[in-house]
Write a structure and sequence with these properties.
about 40% helix; 5 strands; 8 helices; alpha/beta
Length: about 200
Amino acid sequence: MPPELGARHRGLPSANRAAVARYAEQDARAAAFLDRDGVLNVDMGFTHRPEDLRFTPTAVEAVRLLNAAGYFVIVVTNQSGIARGHYGVEDVERFHDQMLRTLSEQGARIDRFYYCPYHPDGTIPAFAIEHDTRKPGSGMLMQAMRDLPIRREGSFMIGDRQSDLDAAAAAGVPALLVETNACDLAASVRSMLAEHAFGEIG
């Protein structure tokens, strides 16, 4: 994969690759940018093993709501564990594939994963750098807007850290801060859709 894409969507899961072509055919639509650890799945600390996947209480319902509203569902996540040597790129992608499979079994879909493997304090030289894709930088959101026909109007971000809010602000989209691991993500999605959506709310 070209280096300039490496931080944004390294190893796009195969289920997502198959969908890329049809995105080009679609009209622009809004996107929901979701942080991963602590928002979609329970953050166990450098979570990366598929067997450790636990969705937060209403995460699956939240993703279904976004699907029904016609939103792109895009995960944007800092994964400094790669730079720190705790796990590798392949581990992140296996975890994302497990998320896709589990959600699919429950009638929900994530359209794209973007993750940043960089951290200036890392122990892996290739990743031990500052990078604009690391939140609070807006690089992952901006890359998604270049890759997909995303309409900024109506788009929003949900995260559990100030860095998520800062990344969203830098990308020009509103954001909502939720409680780590215990948020009612479905309620948060309903609130954001009621305020920002153009689609139907399920």
